[in-house]
Specification:
By secondary structure, the chain is α/β, with parallel strands linked by helices. The protein is 33% helix and 19% strand. The longest helix is centred in the C-terminal third of the chain and has 20 residues.
Amino acid sequence: MNKIKIAIAGIGNCASSLIQGIEYYKNKNDQEAIGLMHWEIGGYKPSDIEVVSAFDIDKRKVGKDIAEAVFELPNCTTIFCREIPKKGVPVKMGVVLDGFADHMKNYGEKYTFLLAEQKEATKEEIVKELKESGAEILLNYLPVGSEKAVRFYTDCALEAGVGFINNMPVFIASDPEWEQRFKEKGIPIIGDDIKAQMGATIVHRVLTNLFKNRGAKLERTYQLNTGGNTDFLNMLDRNRLASKKESKTEAVQSQTKIRLKDENVHIGPSDWVPWQKDNKICFIRMEGKLFGDVPMNLELRLSVEDSPNSAGVAIDAIRCCKLALERGQGGALYSPSAYFMKHPPKQFTDDEAYRMMEEFIEERKE
C-alpha cells in the first residue's frame, strides 16, 4: 500500500517517541505488537507511516535530519529504538510566536529550548513545504499555551489542503468556527489534546464512570501531576495553562452523573521535577459516599513514561485521518476524536467512543 505521509510541527519528546515507534514496529508482527490498540487500520500498519516534513525552532534540531533531531536536547524521553536510518528529511525552521515561554531561558541548556538563529518561516514557505513534501497530514506537537502558533499552523494546513491532528490543548477541532472551515474545505481534523494510552486522564475518566455505574456518589476529586520534561517546565508559567486545565477538567467532568462544583474538582499539572525527566507521576484522589451515605475514598498513584504513552494513540489517529482522506470526509472526525482526545467536539464515555471508532474504521470495508 501507499505510505501515509505526515508532517510534524514540534520535534519534542512526543515526536521522538512517535518516530522511534514507527521504526520499532517495522520488524514486528501482529503477535508482537505490544502497546498498540490496532495493528492494522484500513490495511495500514504502523510502518506505513512516513515523516516527510518537520518544523521546530530549537537550534539543536533545525537543519538536522529528523532521525537525529529526535534525540537532541532538551528531549529526554526513553530511547527504545536508537537505530533510526536517516530519512533525508531536515527539520525546517518554523515560527516562534508564543511557542516559546520566556521563563524557559533561565534553566540551562540541558532543560530549555535554544532558539535557532535562522529567520522564521513565513506562512507561504510552510504551505509550500507541505505541498512539495507530499504531506497528507500535519501533526501539531507544539508546547502547551502556544495559542497563536497553533492557529498559525492550522491555517497552513487548511491552505495546503492537508489533514490536521491537534495533539495539544488549543481548541481547534472543538471550536465550531474552525471545524466549519475544515468541513468547507473537505479536510479532516482530529482533536483536541491527545489522551494517552494509559495516562492520568483515561484512568480518571474510567474511575469516574465506575462511581456512576456502581451507584456511588462522587463528591470531590483531584488529579495532581509531576514530571521533568519540557512540557512540565513550560507549564510553570500558569498563564499558559488555561486551555490545558479546561481540557483535562472537562474530560473528567463529562463523565460525572452530576457535575461537580468548581471548588470540588482540581485537575491539572502541579510541578516540574527535573530528575523525573519524561516520567510522569499522577496522584488521583476521589471522595464520595456509598450505600447508606457511608463515606469512602480512593487514592491512586500512576507512574508512566509520558511520551511513549501517547505515541501509540497518535499512530491510530494518523491512520484514521488517512481513512477520512481516502473517503473524502472533511471536518471534525467525531468518533476518533472522542476516543483519542481529551477535548473532542463531542464527549462520550470511553466505551461508547471505542465502539464508535471501531464502526468508523469498519465503514471502509462496507
